[in-house]
Amino acid sequence: MSDDNEQGFEQDSPEWGQAEEQDEAFQAGSGPGQSVVPASDSLPERVYLLPIHNRPFFPAQVQPLVINRERWEETIRRVGNTPHQMVGLAFVGEAGVEELGHEDFPVVGTAVKVHKLQGEESQLQFIAQGMRRFRIQRWLSKEPPYLVEVSYPREPVDAEDDETRAYAMALINGIKELLPINPLYGEELKHYLNRFSPHEPGPLTDFAAAITSAKGPELQDVLATLPVTERMQKVLPLLRKEIDVAQLQSEISEQVNAQMQERQREFFLREQLKVIQRELGISKDDRENDVDTFRARLTDKVVPERVMERIDDELDKLSVLETGSPEYGTTRHYLDWLTSLPWGITSDDQLDLAHARQVLDRDHDGLKDVKERIVEFLAEGTFKGDVGGSILLLVGPPGVGKTSVGRSIAEALGREFYRFSVGGMRDEAEIKGHRRTYVGAMPGKLVQAIKEVEVENPVIMLDEIDKMGQSFQGDPASALLEVLDPEQNVDFLDHYLDVRLDLSKVLFVCTANTLDSLPPALLDRMEQIRLSGYIAEEKIAIAKHHLWPKLLKRDHIPKKRINLTDAALRQIIEGYAREAGVRQLEKQLHRIVRKAAVKLLENGQQTIKISVKNLEEFLGAPTFRKEQVMKGEGVVTGLAWTAMGGATLSVEAGKVHALERGFKLTGQLGEVMKESANIAYSYVLGHLGDYGAEPDFFDSAFVHLHVPEGATPKDGPSAGVTMTTALLSLARHEPIDRPLAMTGELTLTGQVLPVGGIREKIIAARRSEIFEVILPDANRRDYEELPDYLRDGMTVHFAKHYRDVARVVFG
């Protein structure tokens, strides 16, 4: 609506129409309850009510209001048809429109003049000019549009009273104090301060209350308070609180602005510095810095020509890419790997045999043959000039020191050492890297190892190589063929680097418990060194020189305070830790240290002595008892080899009944041992007469062949001779009357075939105090290569045919 049509709300519009009867009574001012202020003063006796929710409206305010058109359009139309065009505003708090009733309206409200009504689709907007407080005297309409009869109460005030003037001056000073703090009130405050004076405290008080951010109920209490002095007492704390909040907000804003200005200043200065330095040629952007960094890495390296061409191409690409693009990050990561590798950097080998022996003897007791083999390997490298291109495979049961031997080799050579386990590895990309097209692509473990050690000729240990897996992602064991083949690893190709890398200078040391799961093609590329396990004397030396001092040092316990006797140590080895390695031995020694530490602290003892007598106090009853060699008719002791080392294996043969011929096998035997048993049964059945037994013994005998410890799976091609001897002992009714053990495979014609694990089997025989052994003649060389301390006191018979075995056993 235009400014020159303020007297009626769109009076030309049809929707405003004629007033109803209620409007006529409204305009005439008739009815009960006369107003305190006469109608001549243009304050109507009856007004329509509009509810407001946020905060009450004060007489001193001039403010635009927005109301819902659908609900209050009728009320506004009726107001527009009145000559005074005034409406009453009443604060109803949080009451919803739907639940609003006449009882929700307060008694005191504010009469406002309506100016410049404007309508939109769902809203009506007008400017409300506060006129006077009113008090509701009577409800004429309790449903929208609400119509009430009102009175305009006088506001008792003595403007000349000193207290009133003091409150007025305090309000004016508070408003002036708020003016510079909160610029939102700037123009409005200046306008009202020019109009108000201490001589008009009422409007001044209402204005001061209106500019605060107090809650609605507090402001309504101020509106309903008619005595001006009392009203000023309520407004002044609200104004003071507003000033405090504004000051705090101002301080926070100043702090934030100061920080922002400092950062902006620093940013602009840095940008200006970059521009100045770029103009002077003394600074470069991020791309140039990256390119210079990568080129600087190659200064002291001898990079192959093809690799250098690839690096140059990638650097050219990097210099034109945007730093924020994904391809820039990919290229930068690729160059980071290419330039970080030690191209042409090698360490000098210490091919000093005396130094090598010193390191091996310091780190390891026993393993004499293994040490000699490593010294031979280093001696060969002395003449060649290097030991690169060789792949050693350390094979042996757990806990015999395979990993530590590899570390000692690196120290003896003076080379960097890097170890990673390939046990359980299923992804070929772990060896040969991922393609660069994949998100999160990385080079393989070998490239990572070369980068970390920073030389091209380290000692890299591939641990647990016999435990690699296979999956749909590839076969890592086959991927190792290129790595471990001296003819191929000169040009090893990693999928991520996509350039040839020379691995021929690397000394690879692999470890495995068994060789059964290794592909023959991979096994063919490695030189095997067997670590067979330790006898009791070797374990005693290892415990005294390495394990026991290490445990005491780790727990910071002086050696003198815990005394472990040699007899107790031997008892620990024979009764609690009989495995091939020394891990179980270390665990038992650790138990002793823990329990001894408790006794030292609780009992106040200065020293503790662990002997055979009190050993069970620390470790409990022995896990192993002394092995009793089984004796009797049809009972023979065999020698077996497992992944955990050598072991003695008794074989029993017994006649169940004579009702029919039969043969039964028990003892968790694998397919190979079952075949050996059937061959042994067939051979004995056909040659009973040749070996002094009744030729028809098995014709009516049901024979049961059993290998004790049936819960333990057993398999392998080395029990044929033992089973044959057990059956022959049963048929001859002649037990073996002395400690005797044997091993070997048998053919149907009686030939004794060679077997493996001779060292482990001899150790197992000595552990059981068996010093007479029968071995296949083809294993004579394996036995003769054993160290003297293993052969000392042993009586060994070599057999080519089973007749040689029978001659030794039965005479």
Automatic annotation (TrEMBL):
Signal peptide, first to last residue: none
Cellular compartment(s): Cytoplasm
Main localization category: cytoplasm
General function of this protein: ATP-dependent serine protease that mediates the selective degradation of mutant and abnormal proteins as well as certain short-lived regulatory proteins. Required for cellular homeostasis and for survival from DNA damage and developmental changes induced by stress. Degrades polypeptides processively to yield small peptide fragments that are 5 to 10 amino acids long. Binds to DNA in a double-stranded, site-specific manner.
Binding residue positions for ATP: G396, P397, P398, G399, V400, G401, K402, T403
Family annotation (InterPro entries): AAA+_ATPase, ATPase_AAA_core, Lon_bac, Lon_bac/euk-typ, Lon_lid, Lon_proteolytic, Lon_Prtase, Lon_prtase_N
Residue ranges constituting the Lon proteolytic domain according to the UniProt record: 630-811
Catalytic activities: Hydrolysis of proteins in presence of ATP
CDD domains (alphabetical): RecA-like_Lon (cd19500)
A GO molecular function held by the record: ATP-dependent peptidase activity
Family, per entry: Belongs to the peptidase S16 family.
Main EC class the enzyme belongs to: hydrolase
Active-site residue numbers: S718, K761
GO CC terms of this entry: cytoplasm
The protein's name in its UniProt record: Lon protease
Native organism: Halomonas eurihalina
Subunit structure: Homohexamer. Organized in a ring with a central cavity.
GO biological process terms, semicolon-separated: cellular response to heat; protein quality control for misfolded or incompletely synthesized proteins
Coiled-coil boundaries: none
rRNA-binding in keyword set: no
Inducers of expression: By heat shock.
